[in-house]
Amino acid sequence: MFDPFRPRRSVLYMPGSNARALEKAKTLAADALILDLEDAVAASEKATARDLVMDAVRGGGYSKREVAIRINGLDTDHGMDDLRAACEAAPDAILIPKAQSAAMIEEIDTLMTDFGAPDSTQIWAMMETPLGVLHAEKVAMASTRLTVFIMGTNDLAEDLRARHTEDRLALIPHLTHCLLVARSYGMVAIDGVYNAFRDSEGFGKRCLQSQNLGFDGKTLIHPSQIDVCNQVFAPDSAAIEHAKAQIKAYEEAQEKGEGVAVLDGKIVENLHAEAARILLVRHNAIRSMEH
Questions:
Q1: Please, what is the average pLDDT of the chain?
Q2: Which of 109, 119, 148, 268 has the most beta carbons within 10 angstroms of its beta carbon?
Q3: Distance separating alpha carbons of residues 107 and 90, to the nearest angstrom
Q4: Backbone φ and ψ of 229, nearest 5°
Q5: Backbone dihedral region for residue 86 (phi beyond 0: left; psi -120 to 50: alpha; all else: beta)
């Protein structure tokens, strides 16, 4: 069953044509892995990559890491074979590139059932085209299997003819629109990649921006980005202690028959206590991943 509080801070793309990378992924601290058959694989290697990825998924060994397979689009020569094979391998999720209509997701859902995918295999959707962002709500409503939006910021920026700037000003409306839809339908939203993987300082700032916007995590293109990403998207010790204090103050107020509490000179209502509980659930889920 889909768990919206499962840690998805760091979601690392791994090239499906690289057997050593698929094996190394079993030792990395990423919360989730996307074994990629699309952009990271040359046309001449598509079939070989498919076999490698399916063998890796069936072989297991990825521990608590969530494993998704990104297939090629159904409008390509490889998409249907990818989907059929992925359904048989039964990963945690199948990631659909360029999701941009309800009809596309409905077709994928039907085919997954026809190909024998277990109910536990989710659909994740790449939101990387203007049409996809425009139709985000229709996409979200198209299937109960659909649980995660993955932002494809490189493709989206190119299609929008937007400049890549440090503040991502041109992309913010599109990012927040998809985030709004995801939150409205109980889904997870993962921000796009940061291309300069050797720029750890810039990457840290980008992660902080993503977290401030409300995203659950980021997709990554290199293992060196994992630690920074995990740290930024995890609540720190001060936030954890404050959450505990909020819950305690609110519960004590409830016992006294009072509707609100006061902590450090600030009102604590039910919504604050509930947010604090969710933060602790996420914290405990992260601890479970790491131990």
A1: 96
A2: 148
A3: 18
A4: -60, -50
A5: alpha
